[in-house]
Amino acid sequence: MARGIAKAVGVCFLAGVVAAQTPLGPSEYTVPGVFPTSVYESYYNDPTATTAEPQPVITDPITHVTYPYWLTNPETIPQEDTWETHPLPPTASSSQLLDYAVQQIISISTSPIFSSDTCAACQASLEVAKFLALAAPAEGPNLAIRLCEYFDYADDCAADYGIFTLGATLTQVAAYADAGGYDGQSICNQFLGLCPDPPTSPLDLTTWFAKPKPNPLPPSRKATGQRLKVLHMSDLHIDPRYTVGAEADCSAYLCCRPSSYNDHSPNVTVEPAPYYGAYYCDAPFPLILAAMQSVPVLTGTEEYGFNFSIYTGDLVSHDPGNQLSKEYTVYSEVRYRAQNSPYNIGPELTDQFNWDYDHLAALWEYEGWISSETAQQARTHYSAYSVQRHDGLRIITLNTDMSRRDNYYAYINLSSSDNSGMLRFVTDELQDAEDAGDRGERTDTPLIRSVDRFSPHVIAGVFFGHTHEDQLSVRRWKHTSLYTPAYL
């Protein structure tokens, strides 16, 4: 209708013009030389001058504000509007940030844009978690719990991911990891299966080793013919909370606890836990002590003992995270859930696991296993150290938590092939051994390149743990009869 009226008016107007046949005025107009000063009451400058723009004084009839000269003066044009308000959104509270983070991550997970790229969706979600961890770190564990519940990731999300279990660890990792880069891709691959397995960070071997491998290899020390007896133990997993008579055939590991039950017989114990332990349970003290008593008898070392012993880790029981604590860890003399962070994680968190390294070093020194100098080395190298026997044999220990897949802290700064410095430590120790003509045995080594470089003339053997099986592995050098054994 409006369009029709406008069209009709236009037609009438044109018709009037045509009907009047009024001739147009002159084709030229000459502006008077003097500015019509009567248009405005007053001016900031001389309006009659022809060398400058007239600057009338303007007063707003609504606000009654007289606008200042500097607002229109070409010599003082403001570069920033600093005198007016520029509204910003209000600061969100920590709980609001948590709600927004949950909403954004759910939105990302359901967006059709990411439907064909789960890896991009996962890393985008990690970026959201990262900003929450930095802006409202106390909400990090709550984010983990809520996402766990939404995606049905665990049976008891609060127990697994609360502030007193993995929640604090995950918040630290979210804050310091490169969520959009290599770290994020690795996290999404390892823990969620949403990204392809990224390649290992390259290690520049051109400058890694202080010296090239000797060629030919130095001659081995002449064997004395004396056979050494070595005891290698690992993964005892002592359970001081083991409960005799509890369900040993439980449906949810760890069994042999008062809360253990069998889904098929929740009210009646199917297999009461015996005094000396059961298959699905960690080891009670009677079993461990019986095993220790049997070792010298079964190995024929009752009279003279072993030349030396090696223990490759894991004493703590497999408790759920919410049942573990620093005190229980110290009691068990082992690191809590293999969660150790690198020293360079951040200035506020650098020493968060020093209590563990200090305690272990002090225990080993107290037992007379290492000297005070070696104990200091252990305190500053994540409990790693090197000792030497009188016959020149070196034993180099490592903390492999920094290379364990289930250590969340290992996913910070993965672009560095040696973020913790542990590989640098063992390489330098092996170089010192080579320079001195020593041989060494390494426990828990993650760097195969160092094995290649210093074998077989320096490394006599590699000892691991954690598989819960007796295993033997041999690495043989191409086109030679030389090899390095590994014992698990």
Distance between the termini: 90 Å
Structural class: alpha/beta
Topology pattern, helix = H, strand = E:
HHHHHHHEHEHHHEEHEHEEE
**Overall geometry:** elongated
Q: How many domain modules? A: 3
Task: Report the major sheet.
Answer: 6 strands, mixed
Mean pLDDT: 85
The radius of gyration over CA amounts to 38 Å
Q: With helices defined by DSSP (H or I, 4 residues minimum), what is the helix count? A: 13
Helical residues, percent: 25-40%
Strand content: 5-15%
Low-pLDDT residue spans: 1-19, 333-338
Number of strands: 8
**Major sheet: arrangement of strands:** 3-4-5-6-8-7
Organism: Rhodonia placenta
Signal peptide: 1-20
GO molecular function, one term: phosphoric diester hydrolase activity
InterPro entries: Metallo-depent_PP-like (IPR029052)
Task: Report on this structure.
32% of the residues lie in helices and 8% in strands. The protein has 13 helices and eight strands. It has helices spanning 2-20, 94-110, 118-135, 140-150, 157-161, 167-176, 182-190, 285-299, 326-332, 354-366, 372-379, 422-436, 448-454, and strands at residues 230-233, 308-311, 385-388, 393-397, 439-443, 459-463, 472-476, 483-487. The strands form two sheets. Strands 3-4-5-6-8-7 form a six-stranded mixed β-sheet. A two-stranded parallel sheet has the order 1-2. Helix 2 packs parallel to helix 4 and helix 3 (118-135) packs across helix 7. The longest helix is centred in the first third of the chain and has 19 residues, at 2-20. Residues 1-19 and 333-338 have low confidence and may be disordered. InterPro entries: Metallo-depent_PP-like (IPR029052).
